[in-house]
Amino acid sequence: EAQVTQNPRYLITVTGKKLTVTCSQNMNHEYMSWYRQDPGLGLRQIYYSMNVEVTDKGDVPEGYKVSRKEKRNFPLILESPSPNQTSLYFCASSLWTGGTYNEQFFGPGTRLTVL
Amino acid sequence: QKEVEQNSGPLSVPEGAIASLNCTYSDRGSQSFFWYRQYSGKSPELIMFIYSNGDKEDGRFTAQLNKASQYVSLLIRDSQPSDSATYLCAVKRVGSARQLTFGSGTQLTVLP
Question: What is the pLDDT of residue A40?
Fold first, then answer.
């Protein structure tokens, strides 16, 4: 089954404790992206990657890191989480055809609470 | 000004009525427009996209685009309780690697 998976689905942590949210897709997509969703603010892009070893900042990259060492995986790293990073996080993937749109497939989401 | 604006709602319509969802965007370079549906606690799913001015119909859904007015809408005919969800408008600028810019969404409730 074609899908994007995220782990963990739910996480409660404390300020400053490093964490990683994993994202994996089995569709051989080049493009992967992380979003956060907050009430009243919609989905905002954190980072994106157009292929292995190619990443770039989205709208709200502060406090986050990413890496793309394999095509299928795109982990999101919070080196020192803070309460303002409490949010619902979505990973998404799609084909990449040089800027034209390809449907993005979203993972199930990770609800993160930072105390 | 937000790049993509939607009325947050909630919008309530009776079952069988037409639900009208609206979206405006600020970037005149936007070329592609999308409507996603998101059920509570779930991930967004694409329901419609439109690239050209005018109407595009798919079943009970009609997307309408007016680039001159920077306005895109989604009509849901014969609304069903199962249509109750948050509808996200998203736009894309051709050539941009950012893929989509989303609005904050409109919460729709269809009353039985």
Answer: 82
